[in-house]
């Protein structure tokens, strides 16, 4: 397809997180978002990053990276990948850029990276692509969608969005810009599908105020609140309620402390608020304490988890504590969060989550908002992004319910290039590129294979036999092997030592023994290794 725009979504098409979209017009490339996935600590993986192999031969053509907002799943891959991409300039809202700057400091890459804050409606010309920032509402301040004007057609990327007409101390969505974009014509609209399965309209930030105020007013002792560290509007909102009921405001947790400091420097907190270091809590009675702590997703090293481990001191959990988790549940963390809630409940605390009472307004538009976005933009093609496969298909069904045809909805996989022009689109076969695993804070290209081997080692039994070739002494290591057969195996091994047979012959004899004693279903779960070294 000549004269086409090439689009490749590197991540976010088969998972929640890992968001990144590459747009290529002739020799000019822009990247929208470069995020990680939500933590997957199983088998030593901290998180995954988008696979950028398809870009490595084109780094001189990358004109810029545009970050929609400050959540990790949209920008946290930058410290790992920015150098491999040739340090292109990074754009975002002033708050987003400050978060990125703070993150890059830990990797000593700030001085090499051009960080450029954009104001709402500001436009940047990058070769044959002109990019305009459009203010949207989400669960974090400084959220932008991006309008890309190109000679091949115009595109709009929503990032994460909802239509909150009464956000807390922030401007509502820039509807005027969205209408104007729709009038200019949109070839492709990339639309957030995270809540495409949810009917109706999402909640406004101000709608949860009444419930939060009730919990704070009635709490008998300390109040411990945990939310996402970047949600400054929520922190501001809760802190002002606490102040109303004579609570002193404290912060505990490194990420929260850094983000709060950024918010103070940028004037994003109410000027009447005084936020104290958590060590000062000893100066006040429990009835006057409201503490913000990291760890709403049950993270092992976060402040909430550490409080549960404390045996004495300021941060030891008390039965009079009220715990408020004002955040959404990341799907992969459901069990972890439930265990955290249970541990606090077991200490006698009152624990409130969004499942119990509305104390969190999600950041993603429901079906009514998705429809409204489509109606404002009037795109020729709809490209669902950011969600599991079923979420994106549901957004497609939603679009078809009010007039779009199947051939006007683009459903592509991760790393599958799509060529788009005014006549239609063509999905190419692409190359399967698994995400890059970060293991021990280091990106591993073949991380998927390492994780596969670790899973095998964790989920299969392992019988290791060491035979000293000189002394013929025997050492065995059993993992996952039933107790009743260990004695039989050791007897068989002693016989093999006397016979001085080849290790491979011994291995086959042990495997025969396993077949004799174990159920057929269990045999594949036992791995036998024989070594004479």
Give the helix proportion (percent range): 25-40%
- Tell me the number of helical segments per DSSP (H or I, 4 or more residues long): 14
Distance between the termini: 60 Å
In the predicted model, the low-confidence regions spanning at least 5 consecutive residues are none
Mean pLDDT: 87
Strand content: 15-25%
What is Rg? Answer: 27 Å
Biggest pleated sheet: 8 strands, mixed
**Structural class determined from secondary elements:** alpha/beta
Side-by-side strand order of the widest sheet: 7-6-5-3-2-1-20-21
Characterization of the model:
The protein is α/β, with parallel strands linked by helices. The protein is built from 14 helices and 26 strands. The strands form 5 sheets. Strands 7-6-5-3-2-1-20-21 form an 8-stranded mixed beta sheet. Strand 8 and strand 9 form a beta hairpin. Helix 4 crosses helix 10 and helix 5 packs across helix 6. The longest helix is centred in the last third of the chain and has 17 residues. It is globular, with a radius of gyration of 27 Å. It starts with a strand and ends with a strand.
């Amino acid at each position: 397809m000549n004269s086409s725009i090439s689009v490749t979504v590197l991540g976010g098409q088969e998972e929640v997180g890992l968001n990144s979209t590459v747009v290529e017009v002739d020799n000019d490339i822009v990247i929208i978002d470069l995020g990680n996935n939500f933590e997957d600590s199983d088998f030593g993986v901290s998180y995954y990053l988008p696979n950028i192999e398809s870009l490595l031969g084109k780094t001189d053509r990358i004109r810029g990276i545009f970050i929609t907002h400050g959540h990790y799943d949209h920008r946290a891959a930058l410290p790992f990948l920015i150098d491999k991409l040739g340090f292109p300039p990074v754009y975002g809202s002033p708050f987003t850029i400050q978060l990125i700057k703070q993150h890059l400091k830990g990797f000593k890459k700030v001085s090499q990276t051009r960080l450029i804050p954009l104001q709402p409606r500001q436009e940047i010309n990058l070769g044959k692509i002109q990019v305009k920032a459009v203010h949207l509402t989400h669960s974090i301040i400084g959220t932008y969608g991006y309008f890309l004007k190109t000679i091949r057609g115009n595109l709009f990327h929503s990032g994460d969005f909802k239509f909150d007409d009464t956000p807390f101390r922030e401007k509502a969505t820039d509807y005027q810009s969205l209408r104007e974009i729709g009038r200019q014509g949109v070839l492709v609209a990339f639309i957030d599908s995270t809540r495409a399965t949810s009917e109706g309209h999402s909640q406004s930030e101000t709608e949860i105020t009444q419930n939060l105020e009730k919990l704070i007013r009635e709490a008998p002792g300390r109040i411990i609140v945990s939310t996402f560290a970047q949600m400054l509007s929520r922190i501001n909102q809760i802190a002002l309620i606490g102040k109303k009921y004579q609570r002193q405001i404290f912060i505990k947790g490194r990420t929260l402390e850094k983000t709060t400091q950024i918010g103070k420097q940028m004037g994003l907190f109410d000027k009447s608020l005084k936020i104290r270091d958590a060590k000062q809590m000893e100066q006040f009675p429990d009835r006057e304490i409201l503490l913000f702590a990291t760890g709403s997703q049950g993270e092992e090293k976060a402040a909430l988890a550490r409080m549960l481990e404390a045996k004495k001191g300021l941060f030891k959990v008390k039965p009079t504590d009220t715990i408020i988790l004002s955040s959404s549940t990341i799907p992969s963390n459901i069990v972890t969060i439930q265990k955290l809630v249970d541990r606090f409940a077991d200490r006698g605390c009152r624990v409130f989550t969004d499942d119990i009472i509305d104390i969190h307004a999600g950041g993603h538009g429901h079906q009514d908002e998705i429809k409204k976005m489509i109606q404002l933009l009037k795109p020729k093609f709809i490209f669902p992004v950011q969600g599991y496969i079923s979420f994106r298909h549901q957004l497609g069904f939603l679009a078809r319910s009010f007039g779009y045809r199947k051939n006007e909805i683009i459903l592509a996989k991760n790393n599958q290039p799509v060529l788009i022009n005014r006549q239609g689109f063509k999905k190419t076969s692409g190359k399967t590129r698994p995400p890059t695993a970060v293991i021990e804070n280091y990106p591993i290209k073949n991380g998927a294979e390492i994780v596969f081997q670790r899973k095998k080692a964790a989920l299969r039994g392992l019988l290791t036999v060491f035979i000293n070739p000189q002394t013929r002494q025997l050492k065995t290591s059993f993992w996952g092997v039933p107790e009743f057969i260990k004695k039989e195996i050791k007897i068989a091994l002693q016989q093999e030592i006397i016979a001085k047979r080849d290790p491979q012959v011994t291995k086959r004899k042990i495997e025969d023994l396993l077949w004799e004693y174990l159920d057929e279903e269990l045999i594949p779960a036992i791995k036998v290794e024989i070594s004479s070294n």
